[in-house]
Amino acid sequence: MVAETETRQGLDVASSVPLLQARDVTFGYNRQELLHEVSLAIQTGEMVGLLGPNGSGKTTLLRLLSGIFQPWKGQILLEGRELRQWGRRDVAQRIAVVPQELHMPFAFTVKHMVEMGRTPFIRSFFGSQGSRDREAVQEAMAIAGVADLAERIFNELSGGERQRVLVAMALAQEPSVLLLDEPTAHLDIKYQIETLELVRRLNREHKVTVLAALHDLNLAARYFPRLILFQRGIVADSNPAEVLDPALLRRVYGVDVQVGIMRGSAHLSVLPPVLEEKRGLPERPVVHVIAGGGSGEVMMRALADAHIPFVAGALNIGDSDHTLALHLATEVITEQPYAPISSAVLDQVRASLRSVALLILCPVPIGAGNLALLREALFAAQRGLSVIMLEEQVSEGQEESLEAILPRDYTEGKGTRLLMLLRQAGATVVTSVSEALECAKKQLADETFLSLQ
Ligand SMILES: Nc1ncnc2c1ncn2[C@@H]1O[C@H](COP(=O)(O)OP(=O)(O)OP(=O)(O)O)[C@@H](O)[C@H]1O
């Protein structure tokens, strides 16, 4: 996390109230939660890159931070004051958004477009411009390098030129914060570099605070001293060396990469692995862990300590086991916060159970939402998959009384019945993590022995 007072690449980052802040923000679409209690603070002078796979919620977060969307819960604060308490015009004079693309229905010239960026300062849209407005427009066009294009029609420009005009429009607002949504999408490498050089200049020379959603991890490493890795919530928030960690990227993007400093370069590079080196990469998961509600914490730590690669899931975002699994598991099967396990996610669980050698079922609370996971576990056991059931210690004489509904079963006995069927299908019941680990090592050793025969 960002320290209160810090100097990043020569920029003094103010220590007091964050310039822009999300506090416990929850938001979604069509009544389905996408972001759950997201908190983040951007200090004046920072240049922050927002990374994450397609659909991870980057654009949504930028729209929340700029006030286009209102959070369902939580707050967005600008200079410590809730965004909705500021007037629209006041917000627009401070926060500018550079969208990925903008399709204009009319043949606007570049100069018209940049003047439109100035509207928060003009009394009405058709109001007349003052000399300060004209100056701001000229300055914005000069800084963004589009002064020569002033009389050209926006829709007739190249992708790179249009991108620079969008930046000029935002600059005409003279904002303190610039939110950019994939400013380098659709640009060739020359324009990508030019655009990010421009953004860096704005940050360094014009003191504009920057938050930019990006897909290119290499450009992110090169231009952004602070990176936030986002997947419907913050997975990592630190400098490029910490965030561009191959294991973390693998969990979030589901691909193997190499990260290192290329000869003669001063920045980290993220590359696909060389084929020969693939052998040295972490093994594919051999164990699947079903957990939730903290029931898998010790088990997952034990597997990670023993270097046994495992898949965890399905786990809901916001569940403490999900947060831990993102750090420890080789793969994490993720479901939306509080949502029941969907059929698409169940398919992922089924595929994983087909590829691993062992399932460990932790003493997870059983509700209507995760009952389907137990059914998958039972099908897998009936197909011959080895299953270890980690149960809470029961007092003597109670071992045989599983017919009584388990206290952690909230499904009127359906869950308990599935657990009994799992036992009947040959699952091994253990009552401690160390026992489970020993049992797992033995099962995996037997499995390897069988596969070698
Ligand atoms: N207006 C909307 N209505 C319903 N669902 C939406 C809407 N906008 C986005 N979504 C969904 O919310 C999720 C997050 O979308 P968002 O655009 O925020 O992600 P992103 O990280 O910016 O993705 P990308 O990198 O592909 O641009 C996606 O599953 C998307 O389909």
Automatic annotation (TrEMBL):
The keyword Magnesium does not apply. SMART domains: AAA. Keywords: ATP-binding, Nucleotide-binding, Translocase, Transport. GO terms for molecular function: ATP binding; ATP hydrolysis activity. The keyword Translocase applies. Residues 20-257 form the ABC transporter domain. It comes from the Bacteria. This is Iron complex transport system ATP-binding protein. It comes from Thermosporothrix hazakensis.
